[in-house]
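Researcher: Can you fold this with magnesium ion in place?
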Amino acid sequence: HAKEKGRNNYQFFKDEMNTRTAERLAIEGYLRDALERNEFILHYQPKVNLETGMITGAEALLRWLHPEWGLVMPERFVQIAEDSGLIIPIGRWVLREACMQAKRWEETGLRLDSIAVNISAVEFRLKDFANSVYTILNETGLNPQRLQLEITESILMRDVESSITILHQLKTIGVKLVIDDFGTGCSSVNYLHQFSIDTLKIAPAFVQEIGHDNGNNGVIVSAVIAMGASLKQHVTAEGVEKWEQLAFLKVQHCEEGQGYFFSRPIVAEQFAQLLVTGLSDRNRVS
Ligand code: C2E
Ligand code: MG
Ligand code: MG
Ligand code: MG
């Protein structure tokens, strides 16, 4: 019996693996043509000043509008794009599109402090990455100060020495640097200083612990806010979903928040509308 069961488990595992490999291959195949077919779009999620309730910036989030599958979220294809190298042309498209959009908004009088773009490990380690950022800024005419590059803590920690070099190249251009998912990658305070980072973005997992006695009940959030204040770095709390979380963040003087509580990521036209009308009063907790 045990032997039989073992074989069934193995068979199940094998089928599962084959299905996943097939799905990966299908996604990779379609991804190759997705840029040419214009199937990518960006959604924008507001970053909110917690003191004033004003929208200060937007994070550009990539979506793939597949003709048969519909809207495909980054979790399903970004890794595959990284493994195949396709993330390089896709990432360039994201950067150019986001900069162009920010510039367009600016020209219609909708000025944002910043537009944020997520950078994958593969792009970050490219020899000419800083150059291509510089080129895109020149082409689109966006002020480098208005571009935030979001890089996860774990990417930076993979090779600290080269990270410091790359971050300094980017700093020279004048763009702003954000550590994404901060608190999940174990960087030491010493590195934070050397990285010349502008903003720490607290990972949603820590924000979600606020108000839960069983978790750390916001102590990590408070610690990061305090550290940001001492190191003169901006702090953004990510994944704000509940009023209680917002209230806690405000008491702790967290500067900025982002999350479903304010708005889900939305298309450019909707975002422009939101910039005009502002967030609803419900969100402006005083
Ligand atoms: P991220 O950069 O940490 O982005 C935040 C993710 O959290 C987004 O998911 C966003 O929609 C989601 N989110 C925002 N507010 C809330 C909230 O209140 N609750 C919850 N549960 N989630 C919230 P999304 O758009 O699915 O993106 C997932 C990840 O995919 C991103 O994580 C980023 O690592 C990656 N990604 C997205 N766009 C790009 C891109 O253009 N290039 C690269 N390389 N990666 C991207
Ligand atoms: Mg991000
Ligand atoms: Mg994040
Ligand atoms: Mg993430």
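Model: Folded with magnesium ion in place. The chain has a mean pLDDT of 91.
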